[in-house]
Structures are given as structure tokens and as C-alpha cells.
């Protein structure tokens, strides 16, 4: 279970709901260590004072704001703790709005679950969740986390409440400079695009099933395991295709619709339905004879490599969320 990152209360009107915030997502990235190519030694980084050259420990390091290169203003933890910030220990509800009025570009980093803290918070927590669910609204909230005040959306997710981080308005760039020049698109081309969208549509993200697979991480774990076994990685099923330039837009749309239907096992022109995508058959592995001792050692090394690659992410994630 993730460790709580924040303790406080959700506050709306005169109602307060004691909660803790926990990360709503987790990373499955495989991380590498930097090593010396010559002897395989790990690379270490040291924090050193640029005046006397002394190597410092964490308790010897403070904060300072740089006005100029030669003018630093020291800022202590007491200075930060004493700031007159009303959201220091509260998730303050600013307003309630319709969820579909929020542009996705406003979504920022940080997704958290709010866990009710203690029996006293269960009833107001449930009340707020049910009220949001019934009205299909979300709450715009402000809260302080990791040294700064943040903006977010409080919304129900299943039986829980979550907070989705938002960017402040002045952090979002205008898309006007990225707009392409005006061009004419025919009605038939629009209808072709709509037909393709209909063919590729699903009701829920979960309906995609095994289609949403992180093939890169799977392949990377296989590379690590192969290195541990002193063998070549298993070949990847399928071939990588390169995108060709679009010459005839209508022809490309029609071909895309046909391909999408074929991949789902459809032959007629009826409404699109979702079919489970068959799993790719695993490539045959070549085996070589090994002595019992060597075979056991290789198996142990492979399992250790796979477990390390899969589990290191968890410990790294906990350190980052601390």
C-alpha cells in the first residue's frame, strides 16, 4: 500500500472531511544504473561546496533563492512552514463545475486518491462523493503539496474521491501559433474520417484489453533476461511498418476502415463491434544442452534478473513519492 503523501482535510463551506492523499498511479519503467565501462563500477554523485570543496551530507544543505549569481537569500524550513497559506493543511473547494467544461490540456502532473481519515470522516466523505456523482460535477480545489500551492479537480472514482492536478492558467501556452494554414476539406473526406472513427470506437478504455500493452518494457525485460542467460533475445513477432506519405486521402481512409474491420474480424458493413484481439504466438526458442549445474545457475540468474527489473520500479516509485 502506498505511503500517504499528505495529511489534512477537504473543506467545502462549513463541512470538513479529514483525508490523506496517496498516489493514484504507479510507474513500471525499468531503470538503469550508470557504470564505469572499464570495470563496471557504479557511478556515484557527491554534493560538494564550491567555496571550500567540502563534501556535504543532507543535514548540512539548506535552501537559498538566487537573486543574482553572487547574491543568495537563505530560506529555512521555518520560513516556509510559517507562510500564511490557508491551503497548507486543507484541500479548499473553490467552486463546482461540469466536468466536460475542463480542457484536457489543463490537466497537470499529479493524480491522487483521497482516503478518509478516521471514522469521523466517513459520512461527510461519502456525502461529498455521492453529491458529485449525482450532479455529474467536479470540484475545483486548491491545495499545498511539495513546497507549492496547486490547483486540481476533485472528482469521484468508483467508491473513492480523487484529485487530478491542473495547470494554472498562466502555465498554458496559446495554441494559436501552432495552427496550420487554412485548407479545404470535402464533405466526403469528413464522412470517411467519421466512418473510420466509428469503426475504431469503443465504449470504455478497458474494452481495449491486451491492445494497451507496454511492449517496450516487455522487450527490455527480455533483453535483461537474455543478457543474464548469455543468449540472444527472443525475436519479436511481427514487423515494424513505416508510415507512407498520404497521396489520396479518400483511398487512405477507405483502406484504414477496411483494415480496422479486418483486425476485429468483421466482414460486412454493419456497426462496429469489439472483438478480443488474439494473442500473438510466442516465437520458438532455440535451446542448447547445458550441464545440470549450469542449467540451474542460469535459471536462477534469469529469474533474479526478471524480478529485479520488474520490482526495482516499485522501490524507486516509493522513494520518488516520499
Number of strands: 9
In percent, how much strand structure appears in the residues? Answer: 15-25%
Biggest sheet: strand arrangement: 1-2-6-9-8-7-5
* Mean pLDDT over the residues: 78
Q: Tell me the distance between the termini.
A: 13 Å
Could you list some keywords that capture this structure?
alpha+beta; single chain; seven-stranded mixed barrel; 6 helices; 322 residues
How would you characterize this protein structure?
The protein has 322 residues and is α+β, with helices and mostly antiparallel strands. The protein has 6 helices and 9 strands; from the N terminus they run E-E-E-E-H-E-E-H-E-E-E-H-H-H-H. Strands 1-2-6-9-8-7-5 form a 7-stranded mixed beta barrel. It has a two-stranded antiparallel ribbon with strand order 3-4. Strand 7 (137-145) and strand 8 form a beta hairpin. Helix 3 packs parallel to helix 5 and helix 4 packs across helix 6 (292-321). 8% of the residues are buried. The model is unreliable at 269-298 and 312-322 (pLDDT under 50).
Quick structural summary:
The chain is of the alpha+beta class. The chain contains 6 helices and 9 strands, in the order E-E-E-E-H-E-E-H-E-E-E-H-H-H-H.
Give the SSE map.
Layout: E1 6-12, E2 15-23, E3 63-68, E4 71-75, H1 77-81, E5 90-98, E6 107-116, H2 122-135, E7 137-145, E8 148-157, E9 160-166, H3 187-199, H4 215-229, H5 249-263, H6 292-321
Parallel strand pairs: 1-5
Antiparallel strand pairs: 1-2, 2-6, 3-4, 5-7, 6-9, 7-8, 8-9
Amino acid at each position: 500500500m502506498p505511503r500517504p503523501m499528505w495529511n489534512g482535510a477537504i473543506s467545502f463551506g462549513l463541512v470538513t472531511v479529514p483525508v490523506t492523499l496517496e498516489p493514484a498511479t504507479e510507474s513500471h519503467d525499468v531503470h538503469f544504473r550508470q557504470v564505469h565501462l572499464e570495470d563496471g563500477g557504479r557511478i556515484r554523485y557527491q554534493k560538494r561546496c564550491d567555496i571550500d570543496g567540502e563534501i556535504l551530507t543532507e543535514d548540512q544543505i539548506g535552501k537559498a533563492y538566487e537573486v543574482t549569481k553572487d547574491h543568495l537569500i537563505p530560506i529555512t524550513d521555518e520560513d516556509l512552514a510559517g507562510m500564511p497559506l490557508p491551503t497548507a493543511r486543507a484541500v479548499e473547494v473553490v467552486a463546482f463545475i461540469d466536468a466536460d467544461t475542463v480542457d484536457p490540456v489543463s490537466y497537470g502532473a499529479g493524480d491522487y486518491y483521497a482516503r478518509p481519515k478516521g471514522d469521523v470522516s466517513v459520512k461527510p466523505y461519502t456525502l461529498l462523493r455521492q453529491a458529485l456523482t449525482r450532479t455529474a460535477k467536479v470540484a475545483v480545489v486548491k491545495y499545498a503539496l511539495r513546497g507549492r500551492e496547486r490547483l486540481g479537480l476533485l472528482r469521484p472514482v468508483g467508491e473513492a474521491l480523487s484529485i487530478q492536478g491542473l495547470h494554472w492558467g498562466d502555465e498554458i501556452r496559446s495554441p494559436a501559433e501552432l495552427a496550420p494554414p487554412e485548407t479545404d476539406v470535402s464533405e466526403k473526406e469528413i464522412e470517411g474520417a467519421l466512418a473510420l472513427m466509428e469503426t475504431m470506437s469503443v465504449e470504455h478504455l478497458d474494452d481495449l484489453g491486451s491492445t494497451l500493452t507496454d511492449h517496450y518494457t516487455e522487450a527490455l525485460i527480455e533483453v535483461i533476461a537474455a543478457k543474464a542467460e548469455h543468449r540472444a533475445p527472443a525475436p519479436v513477432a511481427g514487423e515494424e511498418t513505416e508510415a507512407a506519405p498520404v497521396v489520396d486521402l479518400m483511398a487512405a481512409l477507405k483502406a484504414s476502415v477496411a483494415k480496422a474491420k479486418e483486425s476485429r474480424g468483421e466482414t460486412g458493413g454493419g456497426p462496429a463491434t469489439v472483438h478480443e484481439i488474439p494473442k500473438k504466438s510466442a516465437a520458438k526458442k532455440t535451446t542448447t544442452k547445458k550441464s545440470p549445474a549450469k542449467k540451474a545457475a542460469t535459471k536462477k540468474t534469469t529469474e533474479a534478473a526478471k524480478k529485479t527489473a520488474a520490482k526495482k520500479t516499485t522501490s524507486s516509485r516509493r522513494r520518488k513519492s516520499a
